[in-house]
Amino acid sequence: MSLTADLLARIALDAGALIMEIYATDFEVERKDDSSPVTQADEQAEALILKALSAAEPDLPIIAEEAAAAGNIPDHGSRFALVDPLDGTREFVNKNGQFTVNIGIIENQKPVMGVVYAPALNRLFVAESTTFAWQAEIEPGGDLPSLSQRQRLTIRKAPEAGLTAIASRSHRSDETNAFLETQNIAEIIAAGSSLKFCLIAAGEADLYPRHGRTMEWDTAAGQAVAEAAGARVTNLDGSPFTYGKKQRGYDNPHFIVWGDAVPNSH
């Protein structure tokens, strides 16, 4: 396999630098067919990522958000990539910094490697495998961190005083609120984009329920990071959360990210 986690991190850092250049300008916001926002940062970052991935592994099928929105979805087997060049475009437009670059590698319906980079926050999260993930503080376009700069990610023990739940900043639902009432919640924090997965991986939160629509490219890299840190990502019924759902148009069912939290019946 020619693709490595370090290479994915390098690509994400470079995409982050491009995104931040546009972030500093008076950029235009357009609307896709589903009314979601899109900017030149989404499009240019995706082009950069696709070119770099294709150079590293020419035969790797890549499903990327903007290409998919234009109807360009390649046929794929058990191994393929999922790319969201700018997850949290609303956060980007609102300039609150909580947007991410996401690159995930899927094998046999599961994420096996992934990178989430929040360029406005200088936070890089990398899942090298299904069992090892790390984070580092790196500026957009910066050098890859040395081994000593890489902090291993691991979920925390569930606090006895109650869990910290993390919810969407832009997409909180009544179903999410009802689910949270079934859990021992001490605090609810808000965050945008795939950062929610990564904050659980980093031991900064314990539970992330998502009862709103997401696509596979929104979640693959974040799930790779969370699960490599010891979290579990499940469908609402507790079954595995998987990828390659072509029959659904790569639309995800609702899901829950569990840190050390023990599922209550609900």
Would you mind describing this structure in some detail?
The chain has 2 domains: 5-152, Fructose-1,6-Bisphosphatase, subunit A, domain 1 (Fructose-1,6-Bisphosphatase, Chain A, domain 1, 2-Layer Sandwich), CATH 3.30.540; 163-258, D-Maltodextrin-Binding Protein, domain 2, CATH 3.40.190. The chain is built from 7 helices and 14 strands. The chain has helices at residues 5-23, 40-56, 65-69, 89-94, 174-180, 195-201, 216-228; strands spanning 29-31, 37-39, 62-64, 79-87, 100-107, 110-118, 123-127, 133-137, 151-152, 163-168, 185-191, 207-210, 232-235, 255-258. Helix 1 (5-23) packs antiparallel against helix 2. It is globular and about 45 Å long. It starts with a helix and ends in an 8-residue tail after the last strand. The mean pLDDT is 92.
